[in-house]
Amino acid sequence: MYAARPGGPGTPEDDDMSDWTVDAADAVEKYVAMLRDRTVEPAHSITRIAVFGLLAVLIALPALFLAAIGVFRLVVIIEQGYVWAAWFTFSGIFLIVGGLLWTMRNP
């Protein structure tokens, strides 16, 4: 309908002008992405490891503590309510394990 004006949109001068702006924006985006990959991603991974590790420890310690109490009470029941016998059994087990570990040590 209308004729293109000289120096208007679509001319080589206009294409050169828009190319450097797109190239500059692409370069900035590339360097920002590279900086993010080198800084934020490792920090994010380390933070995830720390959080999930702490969560695992906070769940595992009480579970182990309660399991030890449960095993001791089970031994008391097996030994017909004699608590001293349960202590004697556990001390014997720990003495045997300690003696084996003592023989495996490196001076």
Give your account of this protein's structure:
With 107 residues, the protein is an all-alpha fold. The chain has one domain (12-103). The protein is built from two helices and no strands. The protein has helices at 12-78, 83-103. Helix 1 (12-78) packs across helix 2. The protein is elongated. The mean pLDDT is 87.
Q: In short, what is this structure?
A:
The chain is mostly helical. It has one domain (12-103).
- Structural domain count: 1
Mean pLDDT: 87
- Total helices: the number is 2
Helix-strand pattern, N to C? Answer: HH
Helix content: over 70%
Strand runs, count:
0
Q: What is the CA–CA distance across the termini? A: 97 Å
Q: Give the percentage of residues in beta strands.
A: under 5%
Low-pLDDT sequence parts: none
Major sheet: size, sense and barrel closure?
none
Report the oligomer. Answer: single chain
List keywords for this structure.
single chain; 107 residues; mainly alpha; 2 helices
How is this fold's topology laid out?
Layout: H1 12-78, H2 83-103
Helix pairs in contact: 1-2
